[in-house]
Design a protein that fits this description.
4 strands, 116 residues, single chain, alpha/beta
Length: 116
């Protein structure tokens, strides 16, 4: 089971394993405050895709298509398999830093992971 949460929100015992899925470390957040268990950069969108999307979040559908293509590369595909394996043992919370809570890479990633 995958959950999605903003990394700046307080950790909860219900989060299970907390995994940061951004390419960059969140601004102004210490490792202790983030309380992450792992940081999986391999499933984060490329810098080019991230910058392109942040310039206009109305490009959501195009972002999803481009992100899905990036996730087919071997490092991302292997990391996704590992995330699915972790989810077999309990809740995995995918952490993101964007202010956009509905349209972000973690939300997209959770959907891709659920689709198998």
């Amino acid at each position: 089971m995958f959950a999605v949460k903003r990394v700046y929100d307080p950790p909860s015992p219900h989060d299970g394993v907390r995994i940061l899925v951004d390419r960059l470390w969140p601004r102004g957040l210490t490792k202790e405050a983030a309380a992450i268990d792992d940081w999986v950069k391999e499933v984060a969108p490329s810098n080019e895709l991230r910058n392109w999307f942040h310039a206009n979040v109305e490009r959501w559908d195009d972002f999803l298509a481009r992100y899905a293509k990036e996730l087919q590369t071997p490092p991302a595909r292997d990391a996704m398999a590992a995330l699915r394996g972790r989810a077999k043992h309990g809740r995995v919370t995918l952490l993101f830093s964007s202010k956009e809570t509905d349209r972000n890479n973690a939300t997209a990633l959770a959907a891709f992971l659920a689709d198998g």
